[in-house]
Amino acid sequence: MTNLTHLETFVEVAIRGSFAAAARHQNLPRSTVTARVKALETALGVVLFQRTTRQVRLTAEGEGYLAKVQPALGVLEEAGEDLKASQTPSGLVRMTVPVDLSSVQLAEVLARFQVDYPCVELEVHISDRVVDVIGERFDVALRGNRVEDENVIIRKVGASRQIVVARPDVAGCCDVEKLARLGRVLDNAKVLEETFGFQVEPSGFRTSNKQLAKQIVLSSNVAAVLPRAICEGELETGTLCEIGSNLVLPDLPLFVVLPSARFVPKRVRLLVDYLVKFLGS
Question: Which residue ranges form the domains of the chain, and what is each CATH number?
Fold first, then answer.
């Protein structure tokens, strides 16, 4: 009978494309991982991986076996998780979010979630760097750009309306197109140029960080293309105002990314449902 731990190790090696990476993830010696895969190959009578000094690839037989084994392991893990979480969801959810996501809006969603599920612990990491969701063992990632990775699950949460904002004294002097020609619009993603064909001269500032761009707008005579969600407070107090309201800018999408390499626990599914419900509204 095939050993379940051998199957789990086989899947880890297949997903990560490396015996060493699988060993690190399972906290095992590399020799143990190698021995398990070899024992599985012996029991099945087939070669599951093509091994070279530089890479590990599934054979045709290995690909076919993975397609059947991985879902089966997911069903087994799901059965165990559902049994443990049948009464009260609990445990840790590790989450990574971008710097530019509205902290006020996110805080409200997470606070609501913890009121409903007090036994679930949330660990939130804020970073704009490219995160390896599987390798760094995150359960959920929120990203403003679509992640092109076949090893993860991607779901659109919602979208944030983009607007052009400036201080009132700047907004009153000229329109968006003129500000763009004068090099007084921060538009790192080239939204105005690509959407309306505006000639946008380079300004003295350039940043992909929208929170920093907002602070630059507040302290200088420039405008910026920003998500409305991160400017709500300043728009309400009047320290910033929207200009070019007749311009319909494309929305900025927000995606939730989940590792597809393993079963998604109930506590994570519940959090994702919250994110979709409240951030997508």
Answer: 4-84 (1.10.10.10), 91-160+253-279 (3.40.190.10), 162-250 (3.40.190.10)
